[in-house]
Amino acid sequence: MKMKKVKNCSGLALGEIVKDFKGVDQNGNTIQLSALLKKGKVIIVFYRGQWCPICMPHIKKLQDDFDKIKEKGASVILITPENQENIQKTILKTNVTIPILYDKDYKIMKNFDLDFVPGKILRLIYKTMLRANLKNVQSDNSQTLPIPATYIINKDSTIIWRHFDRDYKKRSKVEDILKQL
Question: Rounded distance, CA 142 to CA 95, Å?
Fold first, then answer.
């Protein structure tokens, strides 16, 4: 049996230009990166889904310190491969008011080079232990997930800071984000 090679994501690097994108948030608002950048820096946080026991506390912490981020003149966007129904579960678990975009067809994740399909054993663990039914909550059956990365984008669309770690347990800290703003 031939083994499928897992994609080796490296994520967009410091100094790279982020392509403009838009999506609809949990409130039905169209969010466009270029429009937010006119107001100031934008923090983009990719998360796996409401089933992820590391993602939910991370989002809760971002929400808890959201006012500090806004005081620095920055916006925040959360991006997930999960559909709107599951975004609602994220909101119930975290009380998040930060805009969350459903990355249908993984276009934004692909632009950031964060998309990958976990191996078969890991997908089985996600499904059995974490009740993550990836095939039913995303736009296709691929079970694609993002590396849970965080980026700060400057007004000129360049990346000025990033937290990228393939270890899904390691996440950006609000204190580090605030230092960069």
Answer: 29
Q: What is the third-level CATH fold of 22-180? A: Glutaredoxin (3.40.30)
* Domain range annotation of the chain: 22-180
pTM of whole model > 0.85? yes
Residue 5 has pLDDT above 70, yes or no: no
Burial of 74 (0-12, 13-18, 19+ CB in 10 A): buried
Alpha helices in the chain (DSSP H): 33-37, 55-64, 66-71, 84-94, 107-111, 120-129, 134-137, 174-180
Judge contact between 162 and 45, C-beta under 8 A: no
- Characterise 154 by phi-psi region: left (phi > 0), alpha (psi -120 to 50), beta (else): beta
15, 13, 5, 23: which is closest to 116 by C-alpha? Answer: 5
Q: How confident is the model at residue 7 (pLDDT cuts 50, 70, 90)?
A: low
- Name the DSSP class of 106: G
